[in-house]
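Hi team,

Filling in the usual template for the complex we talked about on Friday. All components are listed, including any nucleic acid strands or ligand strings, so the model treats them as one assembly.

SUBMITTER: L.P.
PURPOSE: interface mapping
COMPONENTS: two
RESIDUES: 324
SEQUENCES:
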Amino acid sequence: MTTPSSSQSDLERRAREAFEASVEGLDARTRSRLNQARQAATAELGRSRRSRWVVWAPAGALAAAALVAVLLVWRAPGTGGESPRSQVADTTTPGLTAEAAPKGSARSGVGARAV
Amino acid sequence: MNSSGSLDLTRHWRLADAEPAACEEPVLQQSRELDRFLASVERRAYRVAQMAVRDPDDALDIVQGAMLRLAQSYGQRPSEEWKPLFYRILYNGIRDAQRRRAVRSKVFALLPGQWHREEEEDSSDPYEHVADSAPEPGQRLMAAQAMQALEAALNQLPARQQQAFTLRCLEGLDVAETAAAMGCSEGSVKTHYFRALQFLRQQLEEVWE
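RESULT (copied from the run log):
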């Protein structure tokens, strides 16, 4: 690609000047309507930002509440690091253990004694 | 609760009242910045759209749509990103308008008789008769003729070359910004721009001498 010649840069300058002149020559009615459009767009920025906040704030609060609830339900039975079943087993008397134990485990106990 | 407790509560309420105002401050600042940016590009964008679609009302609609879209979708982005984004939206709007016009003209061509679009001029607009602070009539005429020749030559260019020339030369975007606005590589921008310059030089040399 060749470097831009002086006529090209002159062309660019003249094109820019002609364009600037046409921009400056815009009539008052068009300027007024552009101004109104700009005001509407600027107002829209604040509105969209506010509406986004309005939508996301309750959703975020709901998600946080749900997370807290799940954590509470999950953690509540296991306070102290032991399951409730082990706590129940600790309270049973030694004599009741064989009856309370499942059939399979009792049989295996007998087999173990025979060996 | 004792008196100090009630004082703390009052202070808390005051802070809660002040919070929305603190939240509003960045929004206001962003709005002001957006307003300044749009004010700097609106007229030029309008002329670009008008050159492309050749209809003042369509051009206004396109610019208004681009402004709204920028505010809605990209208003939170850093202001340095606005210019290429705005021109990208603007050119999408121009392309849509050109497509709509092509479809409309095809449909109207099938219909019997001639359809004339009635201009809905709002004669009650108070700004219509306000005097412009434009240059002298002679200068204005010369500038208008130069612009007319440029527009005619630009309209003969392929769309991408036209876009590259308008953004680079008339809007003053650099190569990277133009590439972002056109959605292509910087190399493509350079090629399109170079070809556009070559063609325009051929077309305008005689007219502008």
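MY TAKE: Chain A touches chain B at residues 1, 4, 7-8, 11-12, 14-19, 21-35, 37-38, 40-46, 48-50 (CB under 8 Å). Residues 104-115 of chain A have pLDDT under 50 and may be disordered.

Thanks, L.
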